[in-house]
Amino acid sequence: MRGKRAFTLVELLVVIGIIAVLVAMLLPALRGAKEQAMRVMCMNNHKQLILAVRTYAHDNRDVLPFVNSNASEIGGGWTKAGWLYWRVRVNADGGFRDEKQVETGLLWQYLRNTKIYRCPFETPPYRPASSNLLTSYCVNLSLKNPQTHASYKLSQFKSGDILFWEADETKEIWNDGCNNPGEGITARHGGARFRAYMGGKAAKAAGAIVGCIGGHAEWLTVSQFDEEAAKKPGRVQCGPNNR
After folding, report:
1. CB burial class (10 A; 0-12, 13-18, 19+) of residue 198?
2. Residue 3 belongs to a domain
3. Which of 106, 107, 175, 217 is spaced 20 to 30 A from 100 at the CA atom?
4. Would residue 18 count as lying in a domain?
């Protein structure tokens, strides 16, 4: 009886080479699918945050939640809770500490999940002693009435006005729960090859998700957001204070 023929070394190397080529072809597709899934998760976070804001307004005579403006809180103009946290409780904790502090905010009663406050693309370490320990997102400062410190009413904004965006983690802007339009958005979405900053400027395809008053979320590149932010009135510089 003749013995079975074994694979030669050359044949084994050919098979290994073919497997390596197939893996190399599949990895980019798998990586792209993972990033797309993470982007969808971030978009869903925005939608849930917006729904919580709208629900709060419906429960409070159409008034939007306080934006957690540091200027109002430190200056004594506002001592109640805001959308993200309650400054009195945060100060009692010794300052910004961890994501559990979102439980003192006005939206927690509707969300009950700290993961909704965090973009899946953003990973530790977060900025120490800052509101970045609580969230990846910020509320548009345009919601705030500068005379009363309180927020305007939901009905005073258009459906496409931008309510939430992902704040730029490279800037020293993490002292509260809101940002003004000129402080920009992050560039961490768009694939790893796009997220790097080149010469201090975000790559052309880099961008992030923004959430709009009407309830929808959308993708904007950094340059698109900057263009929108420069318009007054516009979708970013929106509301009664910018008309």
Report:
1. exposed
2. no
3. 217
4. yes
Whether 159 is covered by a domain: the verdict is yes
| Cα–Cα nearest to 119, from 64, 54, 45 | 45
- Upstream peptide bond of 125 is cis (omega within 30 degrees of 0): yes
CA distance 8 to 66: 73
Q: Let me know if residue 2 belongs to a domain.
A: no
**Distant-in-sequence, close-in-space partners of 242: CB < 8 Å, separation ≥ 6:** 142, 232, 233, 234
**How many domains are contained in the chain?**
1
- β-bridge pairing 162-166 and 197-198: unpaired
Domain assignment of residue 85, given as a range:
11-242
Burial 157-182 (b: 16+ CB within 10 A, else e): beeebbbbbbbbbeeebbbbbbbbbe
Helix (H) or strand (E) holding 56: helix 9-59
Token pair, residue 72, equals 């109002």
> 38: Cβ–Cβ under 8 A, 6 or more apart, which residues?
120, 121
Note the pTM of the prediction, 2 decimals. 0.84
